[in-house]
Amino acid sequence: MFDYYQLTVPVYTRALKQLTHILDKAAEYAATKQINDETMLGLRLAPDMYNLTKQVQIVCDNAKFAVARLSGTQAPKHEDNEKTFAELQSRIAATLRFVSSLPQAAFVDAEKKTITLPFMLDKPMTAEFYLLSFVQPNLYFHLSTAYAILRSNGVDVGKSDFIGAM
């Protein structure tokens, strides 16, 4: 049996803090190079991929919805209308507040839950499958993509910026 609290709250807290860190570096880079937020946040790796803003929004959504669904609580709503680094940082901070507000006791019996996503009503998942095979890869895909967008466009970020202090 998994400890769903330990597999979510501390893990997502760390990931979100590192996302904050790399966005700080991106904002500093943009200011130094006199690149406006709209241009930086519109960057993408490929024409058919989401831009940086959407990558950050999806990381936040994965974290907040995972802990909400596994704990049986209501996730905060975000409008997906961020246009600046400051607004994205505010969204990450709000997500961090929500994720860290949930006590370990909220995750009791999480393993017994069946998770049905609004866009996949015909595919209910066990809590284990949802967490390990849907949320974790999805969260890290979008976090890695945000990192890659920044690195490929000249922002001085490296593996330690992504992983954080050990």
UniProtKB/TrEMBL annotation:
Top-rank taxon, per record: Bacteria
Family annotation (Pfam families): DUF1993 (PF09351)
InterPro entries: DinB/YfiT-like (IPR034660), DUF1993 (IPR018531)
PANTHER family, A to Z: BLL2446 PROTEIN, DUF1993 DOMAIN-CONTAINING PROTEIN
Protein known as: DUF1993 domain-containing protein
Organism of provenance: Deefgea tanakiae
